[in-house]
Amino acid sequence: MLLRGIKSSLQRELDSFFKTVLSTGYNIRSVTKGALSQSRSKLKPEAFKEINDVAWSSFYSDAPYRKWHGHRLLSVDGSRLHLPNHPSVKEEFGEHLVG
Fold it and tell me: What is the C-alpha to C-alpha distance for residues 18 and 13, in angstroms, rounded to an integer?
């Protein structure tokens, strides 16, 4: 939900997020974009590595999977999806500008 579109401001997204999370019918400024930026700067990169390690180790140790000739198969789909170049599509999904 956060940052769902390019045209929406960060503060508007924060207000909308907290309106939804707090189940209120109106926006109350719970967090400012400045507070978010300050808090984000305090995050340590090592925390993300540890979270990733826990996530993949628990997934690979606990998730059921089938084998093919004794091997676990993993695949990646490299397909691309091109959406119509229409204002309503851009409004809903935003734009990815290549440059």
Answer: 9
CA distances from 77 to 45, 69, 74, 97 (A): 29, 22, 10, 22
Residues contacting 12, CB < 8 A, separation 6+: none
Q: Report the chain's mean pLDDT, rounded to a whole number.
A: 84
**CA atoms within 13 A of residue 46's CA, in its CB half-sphere:** 0
Give whole-number Cα distances, 71 to 6, 57, 62, 77, in Å: 42, 18, 17, 19
Q: Which DSSP symbol is given to 2?
A: T
Query: Which band of pLDDT confidence, cut at 50, 70 and 90, is reported for residue 72?
Result: confident
Measure the CA–CA gap between 3 and 76, rounded to whole angstroms: 26
Assigned token pair, 91: 């409004």
Q: What is residue 41's DSSP assignment?
A: H
The more confident residue out of 66 and 3 is 66
